[in-house]
Amino acid sequence: MNTHQQVEPPLSEHDEEVCISIFRSVMRTHHDLHTLGASIAADFSLHIAELNVIDMLGKLGPITMGELSRATFISPSNTTHTVKKLESSGLVARQRLVASERKVEVSLTTKGAQLFKTCYPRILTTVEHLLEQRLSASERTVLAQLLNKLSG
Question: What is the pTM of this model?
Answer without folding.
Answer: 0.83
